Amino acid sequence: MNTKRNTILKVGVALLLLVVVVVFVKFFTSDTTFEKAEVYVQVPTGSTYQDVTKIISPYVKNMSDFDFIAQRRSYPDHVKPGRFLLRKGMSAFQLVSAMRRNVPVSLAFNNQERMENLCERLSSQIEPDTTKLLATFRDSVFLQKNGFTRENVFAMFLPNTYEVYWNISAEKFRDKMLDEYNRFWSKERIEKASALNLTPLEVITLASIVHKETVKKSERPIVAGVYLNRLAQGMPLQADPTVIYALKLRDNDFKQVIKRVLYNDLFIPSPFNTYQHTGLPPGPIAMPDVDAIDAVLSPSKHNYLYFCASIERFGYHEFAATMAQHDLNRKKYVSWLNAQGTNR
User: Mean pLDDT across the chain, nearest whole number?
Assistant: First the structure.
């Protein structure tokens, strides 16, 4: 009897040890195949458990172990879309846990020239594609409700880094950007804009021109002052960056590099061409950074009406209060361009 009892006991212990070993292997030993320290995987909205297994299989050593744990933790019935972080050396148990934790994206954008470019940039970082984003941002109901137009809604997007979930919908992302825009326009900034007889949208439109004119922060308030002086006198802005924008818009080619505006370019029929139309363009010609916006809100006080790129201080400009002085500065610059062989 004792012998039989001992045999049963030994078998039971052996089975228990086997279970312990199996549990240890599945819960604590590495089940990853990649050499990098970490890998991000993206699970699209509407994905099934079968979809998930296909997505992560290149990174998992033993999918049967993953499935064993997933089934017992009811993961197949609770698949989440999003962006998930897998770390080298994770066990099957840890991998299943990781697929439950949606990791935010640090989404960044700047220096975009139009909505189409922005949407391409965004779609490379979050789930909604370019077409969906563009349609959402140009939704007529949204535009009318919030005082935007197709031409100026681009002003709503302030260059920065934002934390969002990869699977955020286009609508929720748009609403987040609207909240950020409204938060940016503090009472102080609105009062500064009003003192200049400008709306926030007009400030950003002018800031986009200032942004394109110079990268020098010290010059931006001076350039802003020139354009504000022109607006105050009813003069056309005659801003070369608006002509370049009109050229790119006409050609539907925003990748082309234009280093020189030619005389015939000044006559391009476009509402964005400030040589042909007085006042501000119907919307921004680029995404201005905050520094350019604040330069418009706090412009330098002076009597300059003209400026031209300097050939003695590259990157800077020569400013003038009279056309006579401006002509001298301009001729120097044109001669330098010709000498460099810059035809376009």
Answer: 92
Per-residue pLDDT at 17: 45
Amino acid, single-letter form, for residue 111: N
At residue 57, the pLDDT reads 96
Task: Tell me the C-alpha distance between 211 and 288, whole Å.
Answer: 6
Query: How many Å apart are CA 35 and CA 322, to the nearest integer?
Result: 66
**pLDDT over 70 percentage in the chain:** 92
Residue 218 identity (one-letter amino acid): S
- pTM, rounded to two decimals: 0.88
Cα 277 from chain centroid (whole Å): 30
Q: Are residues 191 and 179 in the same domain?
A: no
Q: Give the whole-angstrom CA distance, residue 285 versus residue 208.
A: 6
Residue range 116-132: average pLDDT?
97
- Calpha distance 300→310 (Å, rounded): 19
Same-domain status, 205 and 300: yes
Residue 7 has pLDDT above 80, yes or no: no
Mention every residue, 6+ apart, whose C-beta is less than 8 A from residue 88: 30, 32, 34, 35, 36, 37, 38
Same domain, yes or no, for 177 and 85? no
Residues 248, 285: contact at Cβ < 8 Å?
no
CB atoms inside a 10 Å sphere around CB 106: 9
**Average pLDDT for 264-292:** 97
| Integer Cα distance of 125 and 106 in angstroms | 9
Q: What is the dihedral of CA 54, 60, 61, 63, to 10 degrees?
A: -50
CATH number of domain containing 48: 3.30.1490.480
Angle at 69 between CA 63 and CA 71, to 5 degrees: 95
How many residues would you count in the chain?
Answer: 344
The pLDDT of residue 337: 87
pLDDT level of residue 276 (50, 70, 90 thresholds):
very high
Of 179, 131, 140, 127, whose CA–CA distance to 156 is shortest?
179
| 3-state SS assignment for residue 317 | strand
Cα distance between residue 167 and residue 104, in whole Å: 9
